[in-house]
Structure to design on (283 residues):
């Protein structure tokens, strides 16, 4: 058997198709790799409380969540990088000033600003086989079809616990404007929501990313980065690709992301994770 390795798997577009579909081979790959003595961690931009139960039930050794703000091993929290309140306040004010809708992420929960349901509801409803009716602007209109998406309103959020934001704008230049306006203290990247029109992105503090979190975890586990594998499909996976010994992009990833990884497997529902694990000798 191949010597023990550690694999980091993104969720959306890697384990989970944008919706709820998971290839059976992905479940088999993770469980078989772990049975063979390898470690498999989730590595996602999602909050801990926003991970699908179907994904959780696969079984993992731990998780990097919120794009690198938290690292858990089993039920143990190993790494935590909360955003200072002043930085959160600045982001919220920026969104309000520019008419941008947003999500606030804490470790456990995701909170949605007013107006998110109108923009996100149509997309979410389409994925869940539910017709979205114009004017159905409540947060419950999103949360009701799938209980594991408990989007609460932003005014309920404890702003001292926010670690990351995701924004949705009806204009196409919001990403470039946000990075220019907010300066170097924040890390602004394209989001992975395939929303029609406009733009979306993710904002965290500079230095809080999947790659940095992986290095922190590897130091704790005393595992060499050369023995680490990172599989993903989005721009928040780029820093992961930069630090692991074996970076792999999904076949459904943007060509630029595939180029950054340098190694590409098949698409998410075409046994991408399984094929990567087979090629690397984990299964």
């Amino acid at each position: 058997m191949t010597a023990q390795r550690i694999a980091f798997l993104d969720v959306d577009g890697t384990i989970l198709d944008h919706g709820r579909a998971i290839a059976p081979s992905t479940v088999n790959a993770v469980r078989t790799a772990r049975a063979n003595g390898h470690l498999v961690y989730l590595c996602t931009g999602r909050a801990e409380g926003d991970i699908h139960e179907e994904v959780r039930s696969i079984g993992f050794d731990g998780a990097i969540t919120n794009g690198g703000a938290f690292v858990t091993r089993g039920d143990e929290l190993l790494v935590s990088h909360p955003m200072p309140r002043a930085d959160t306040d600045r982001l919220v004010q920026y969104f309000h000033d520019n008419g941008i809708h947003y999500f606030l992420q804490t470790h456990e929960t995701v909170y949605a600003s007013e107006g998110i349901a109108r923009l996100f509801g149509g997309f979410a409803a389409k994925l869940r086989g539910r017709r979205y009716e114009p004017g159905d602007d409540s947060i419950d209109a999103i949360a009701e079809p799938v209980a594991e998406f408990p989007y609460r309103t932003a005014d309920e959020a404890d702003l001292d616990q926010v670690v990351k934001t995701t924004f949705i704008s009806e204009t196409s230049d919001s990403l470039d404007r946000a990075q220019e306006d907010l300066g170097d203290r924040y890390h602004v990247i394209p989001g992975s929501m395939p929303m029609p029109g406009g733009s979306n992105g993710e904002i965290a503090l500079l230095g809080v990313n999947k790659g940095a979190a992986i290095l922190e975890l590897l130091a704790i586990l005393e595992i060499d980065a050369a023995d680490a594998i990172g599989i993903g499909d989005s721009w928040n996976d780029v820093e992961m690709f930069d630090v692991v010994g074996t970076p792999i992009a999904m076949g459904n990833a943007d060509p630029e992301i595939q180029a950054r990884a340098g190694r590409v497997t098949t698409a998410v529902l075409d046994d991408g994770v399984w094929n990567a694990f087979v090629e690397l000798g984990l299964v």
User: Anything to note?
Assistant: Confidence is low (pLDDT under 50) at residues 130-149. DSSP finds ten helices and 13 strands in the chain. Residues 85-97 form the longest helix (13 residues).
